[in-house]
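The instructor's notes for this session suggest beginning with a concrete chain rather than abstract definitions. Hand out the sequence below and ask the class to guess, before any prediction is shown, which regions might be ordered.
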Amino acid sequence: MEVKSTNQIETGNDFNYDRKSEIKAFDESKTGVKGLVDSGVQKIPRMFHSGIDITQNTAIGSNLSVPIIDLVDIHNNPALHKAVVTKIRSACHEWGFFQVVNHGIPTSVMDEMIDGIRRFHEQDADVRKQFYNRDLKRTILYCSNTSLYRDKFANWRDTVGCSMAPNQPKPEELPAVFRDIMNEYSKKIMALGCTIFELLSEALGLDPSHLKELNCAEGLFIQGHYYPPCPEPELTLGTSKHTDSCFMTILLQDHLGGLQVLHENQWLNVPPVDGALVVNVGDLLQLISNDIFTSVYHRVLSSNRGPRVSVASFLSNTHDPAKGSSKIYGPIKELLSEENPPIYREISVGELMAHHFAKGLDGNSALQPFRL
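After discussion, reveal the predicted structure:
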C-alpha cells in the first residue's frame, strides 16, 4: 500500500488527514501490518496512533503476579484436586486469570502450533492475500484488526482464525502451513478445556459436569495473532484493552511477553512461563456465575522486538453469526438466593456476540447492557 507522507502521519491537527481513506487503502492492500513492516516503514501510519500513555497505571516493581496452578496428578490425588479447585476459585474471583502447568499438552505440540501460525503470517504476500477476508461465515478469517472500521485506532497486529468445533473444517479448507498441527492442537485444547470446566464447576460448588452440560465447551474458535516489530511501540498497542466474550480463553504465548491484565486498577505483566498456558474468564462465564468469577480487562503492548506470536482458543457455546440464534444463558439458578439475586438478565450467545462485534474495541465490557 502507499504509505502516507511523514507530515500527514505525524501532524495531529492536519485537516487534510483522511482517516477513512487511510484505513481503506490499508485494508485493500490485504497484507496487514506485516505488509507495512515489509515495506520498510519507519513511522507508523496515523490510523495506529492510540493517544494512550501506556505507562499510566502500569505497576512497577510489584510483587503481585497472576497465579500459576499446577494440574499434576489432580485426577489421582484427591488432596491435590481439592487444593487446585480452591486455587482456581480464588484466581477466577480475584484475578480472572491464571496460568496452568502440567496440563497434559506436550511442549512439542505447543511449539509447533506457534511455528504454524508464524509460518502462515510469514508466507509471501501474494499467498496471504488469497485468504484475506473479514467474513465471519468463512472457514478461515484472516485480516488485520477484526473491527478495523469501528475502532478509534488500529492495533499493530494481524490475525488468522478458524472455528474448530463443533464442526471441524475439511482438511483442504485449512491452510497447508498449519493444517496438521491445528487439528492436533485443537483436540488437545478441547480435552484440556473440558478438564478446566470441571474444575470451574467444582469451584462454584456445583457438580463437575455442570458447565459442560450447559454446552460451555461445545464451540472452539482459534485465533493465531502475529505482532510484527513496531518502529514506534510507544504510539500504539498490539491489542487494545478488552474483555473476552466467550466462557473461557486458553492462550498460548511465545517467549516475548507483552500481555498485561488490569488488576486493582494497575496494569500487570503476565510473563511467559515455560510450558504454561494462560487461562482467563470470559464475559459469559462472569454472567452465568453472577459475578463470582470475573472477566477482566487485558491488553498487549507493542514492541520493537519480535515478531510476537500467540494462539488464543475461545471456548463457547456455538452460534450462527448469520442467524444470531443460540442457547439462552442467565445466572445459574443454584448460585442465586435472596442474598445473591441475579445481576444479569438472560441473553443468547448470539445477542452478546452481536453487541461485542458492533461495539468493537471501545474499552468497555460487553456485559454492561445486560445488567439488571
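Then share the key points. The longest strand covers residues 219-227. Residues 35 and 310 are 19 Å apart (CA to CA).
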